[in-house]
Write a structure and sequence with these properties.
The protein is mainly alpha-helical and about 160 residues long. Helices cover about 50% and strands about 5% of the residues. Strands 1-2 form a two-stranded antiparallel ribbon. It starts with a strand and ends in a 16-residue tail after the last helix.
Length: about 160
């Protein structure tokens, strides 16, 4: 699993160009047509926000299968925590890739970033679970398991 170091973690859209009324030609001198606010606002789609809530609920069901639920406020806190940890690990892995003059973030950079950011047993558990997830994913697509010497696709 590799990520391009030069690609930003969050995508931003370029600013939209402003539409200016025509000053020459057939539309010159006419007032611009007014759009009704109800039709334009109903066509506007709701902004999508990324959330780890679905995955947090899946883990909660694995840990507590007895219909334990989580409040919206607690979910917001957990979502913020997961997002923050993802950003920290990705940033540290990116720095490690830059130090070693690599253009991609690989398995080892993620592993070293986890070692630097998480304490002892928690780091070992995170690395083990991550390795199990990658091995399961690689097996599902027909790839070779990760043993440290191969990439996810099985190529060197």
């Amino acid at each position: 699993l590799t990520y391009d170091v030069h690609t930003p973690l969050t995508a931003t859209m370029p600013p939209k160009a402003e539409k200016k009324p025509a000053t020459t030609g057939m539309g010159a001198g006419k007032a611009p047509a007014k759009m009704s606010t109800t039709s334009s606002s109903s066509k506007r789609s709701k902004k999508r926000t990324e959330s780890y809530g679905r995955f947090i609920n899946l883990v909660l069901k694995q840990v507590h299968p007895d219909n334990t639920t989580i409040s919206k406020k607690a979910m917001a806190i957990m979502d913020s925590f997961v997002h923050d940890m993802f950003e920290r690990i990705a940033t540290e892995a990116s720095k490690l890739a830059q130090y070693t003059k690599k253009s991609t973030i690989g398995y080892h950079e993620i592993e070293y970033a986890i070692d630097l950011l998480l304490p002892g047993e928690l780091a070992r558990l995170a690395k083990r679970e991550g390795k199990n997830a990658i091995t399961k994913w690689a097996a599902s697509i027909g790839g070779a398991p990760i043993d440290g010497s191969q990439s996810i696709t099985g190529k060197r």
